[in-house]
Amino acid sequence: MKKLVNIISILVLVVFAGGCKKFLDEKPLTQVPTENYFKSLKDVTAGMAGMYGSFQQEMTGDGNGFSGKYHYWGEGRSDNFDRSQYNNTTITEEALNQMTSGNSVADWTGLYRTIGRANTCIKYIPQAAAFDNAVTTNVVNNNLAQAYAMRAMCYFYIVRLWGDAPLWTEPYLDITQQASKPRNPKAEILDTIVSDLTKAYNMIQKKQTAVIWNINEGTIAAMLADVYLWKKDYPKAITWTANVFTSKGSKAVDYGSTGTTLEPAATWKNLFINPANTNEAMWSISWDYNFNGCACLPISMGLSNNPVAMDSVLHTNWKKNTADIRVKFSYDTLPGLGHWDKVIKFHNIAGNVIPTGTGAALANTYNVYLTMYRLADVYLNYAEALNRSGDPVNSLRYLNYIRVRAGLPALLATDPSISTQDKMEDVILNERRYEFFAEGKRWFDLVRTGKVKEVMDPILKIRQTKYGSAPDGFGSDLNKILFPLHRNVLEYNKKLVQNPSYN
């Protein structure tokens, strides 16, 4: 994140330090009484920085190794990624559908740490207005909106990855409080997510130019549309998408519904190397190596050996479509070892050619901006909702906005590949696969649409044969679509029960 955030995050450690029960990482705030802390605009800013910094760390990593969850959660189990010749246990288990409770990405601790910080901000930010005139009503409401939305985002990850989970909506402030909770039903958590996001949208100041490093009006509406898509409530997904269209982006103009505010094809990669200067970016995570260290993505670039490789079939086949401008901006298209494990999408390199030889930059010398939401994501989610709502004409229109921008021909309504709702959904999902490659979306798309076994079964059989396992594909146990709960989580909270099929 920005230098200011890193500096004030140090201050936040006074309030948000350490962790007691690891499954939540919410240490009672004894160093400084929390009620005595939020008494100025500076305190509010520091508290919010601690919340964002916690989420940033969970997605990007802690500056060491390949610990960021963004790619492991969103794509590690999908048909986009595979293990490389430098594989670790994390990706090996994901790529072969052999997840265990010892896998590091089965640990939700960092998400609950972020939830704890959001809960503290929600509880105490309003009191700052009584001590500092700079903490205006708009300041309070805008920060509360972001805290509610961040809490919702963390729970959205949790329910999509683990299903049922403990629901915490108050900060953990007293060591006498009960630190263990059983799991709440997934449906209850989804309802809480909707409630939080609705509060956030009502609080956020409208028609403000978006600051893409923060959750903003358009992002909140996009998140609500996304959640309703998961709930199969397509009319509400459509309604909330309309609210995205009337929100302002970073160029101080409405995102709109006509495709004109999509980033042009010629500068498409700016979405990942300079997102604040695009028409399309909505919310991105900023990682500056000067202050945060290495953004050591598991499928990075530079002179690094990555544990994750691009799936070999996708690596070979996508580049055959020479009209698709996204190929040269997304990955190292050269064949063989040392190339399959390189994604260049998030790296600012001249000519999109990986520098090699003496003096070539290491992966940890690049700033990285991970995309959470952008307008193309909203458009293709909208196409999916419209398709399932019986509006193929407009569904095709939003699909074609993305295809044409990518250099592909627009599909005609008479094309047999989109002749039914199911076929149209498959085409939309395929377009999402290419457009959002390495953006942490693919696994969630497969889960949401019920395509995990259909897509992954043949791919897993190939991988399992190649790596010496029994070629049984995904298998018949669909419980394994969920991740296991990490063994440390179970150890520290005896009220939890492991997900089926992982005992």
TrEMBL record:
Every SusD-like N-terminal domain range: 22-229
Keyword Methyltransferase: no
Top-level lineage group: Bacteria
InterPro entries: SusD-like_N, SusD_RagB_dom, TPR-like_helical_dom_sf
Keywords: Cell outer membrane, Membrane, Signal
Presence of the UniProt keyword Glycoprotein in the record: no
A cellular component annotation (GO) from this entry: cell outer membrane
Localization: Cell outer membrane
Limits of the RagB/SusD domain: 365-502
Xref: CDD domains: SusD
Alphabetized Gene3D superfamilies for the sequence: 1.25.40.390
Family, per entry: Belongs to the SusD family.
Protein name in UniProt: Starch-binding associating with outer membrane
Source organism per UniProt: Sediminibacterium ginsengisoli
Lineage, broadest ranks: Bacteria, Pseudomonadati, Bacteroidota, Chitinophagia, Chitinophagales
